[in-house]
Write a structure and sequence with these properties.
about 260 residues; alpha+beta; Arc Repressor Mutant, subunit A; Chorismate lyase; 2 domains; 6-stranded antiparallel beta sheet; two-stranded antiparallel ribbon; binds 2-acetamido-2-deoxy-6-O-phosphono-alpha-D-glucopyranose
Length: about 260
């Protein structure tokens, strides 16, 4: 069970560190409490209303401070159950049976997601991209490469390739590729994903903020439209210490062999 109402919020009066706008003072106060261990990972924060009364600030100020702390990965918000202190390097579980996007996976966990763009543009395709995406001789390839993070923790480097007919202007992808594709009626409905263990090379290790040679997961996703056309060819490197891929296994149609039939 999650502990709630940490003692620090019962202390009277709450004195915010001076300097700057009120929401930043409150943000710093919560940050200090997390770093000093006065509020522990997994503990719930009082509601926005209670916190506003306790600290004697408006609810808008509380909301703004909390939003910034969620963005920084200090707090997480779970829809319907409240705001909690994030667990350090919380591992993320991704189902292997649902075709979801990175943004959706994180939103379901109440984790704020952001991306740092490494590259986006239209290029001449590589032979591999031409074959996998089934490009004609006149099609270019739209590449979008991003470092994907939750708060300050980098989780993955994703390098997606799509036909330039599907994505003529990669600059138009703002935060979620799948949301962008969905708007154009091009959201993939099926994908094949291949996962391999990998030791991170210098460039990826630097981006993912881990030592060179650390364990990672090399993932290739080829996604299809309902028509059967390949829409996305994405190669990703996930940090091995933060991501779990979880598959649900069911007994198939094969008859179970009993002792004498084995
Ligand atoms: C996931 C997919 C990736 C896809 C991305 C879209 C894996 C291994 N990869 O990260 O292929 O491009 O989601 O996410 O799951 P977005 O809509 O948040 O940009």
């Amino acid at each position: 069970m999650v502990e709630s109402s940490p003692n620090i919020f019962a202390e009277d009066p709450v004195v915010l560190p001076p300097g700057g706008p009120l929401y930043l003072q409150l943000k710093r106060w919560i940050e200090d409490a997390v770093h000093s261990g006065a509020i522990k990972p997994g503990e719930a924060l009082p509601s926005e209303r209670d916190l506003a009364i306790k600290v004697d600030v408006s609810r808008v100020t509380v909301r703004k401070a909390v939003q910034h702390l969620v963005r920084d990965g200090v707090l997480i918000q779970r829809h319907g159950s409240g705001t909690f202190v994030a667990l350090p390097h919380q591992r993320v579980e991704q189902s292997l049976s649902q075709l979801t996007s990175f943004t959706e996976d994180m939103a379901r966990r109440g984790m704020a997601v952001r991306s740092i763009w490494l590259d986006r543009g239209v290029y001449a395709p590589s032979p591999e991209e031409t074959i996998v995406l089934g490009l004609s001789s006149t099609e270019g390839v739209a590449r979008i490469s991003r470092l994907r993070l939750t708060g300050d923790t980098p989780l993955a480097v994703e390098r997606a390739s799509l036909s330039s007919r599907i994505l003529p202007d990669p600059e138009q992808v703002s935060s979620s590729l799948y949301t962008h594709l969905e708007k154009a009626g091009n959201r993939p409905v099926r994908a094949i994903q291949r996962i391999r263990a990998a030791n991170l090379g210098e460039d990826d290790a630097k981006l993912l903020d881990v030592a060179v040679g650390s364990a990672g997961l090399n993932i290739e996703r080829i996604s299809y439209l309902a028509s059967g056309r390949v829409i996305e060819f994405t190669r990703s490197i996930y940090r091995g210490d933060t991501y779990d891929f979880v598959a649900e296994l069911r007994l198939g149609d094969q008859p179970i062999l009993t002792g004498s039939q084995k």
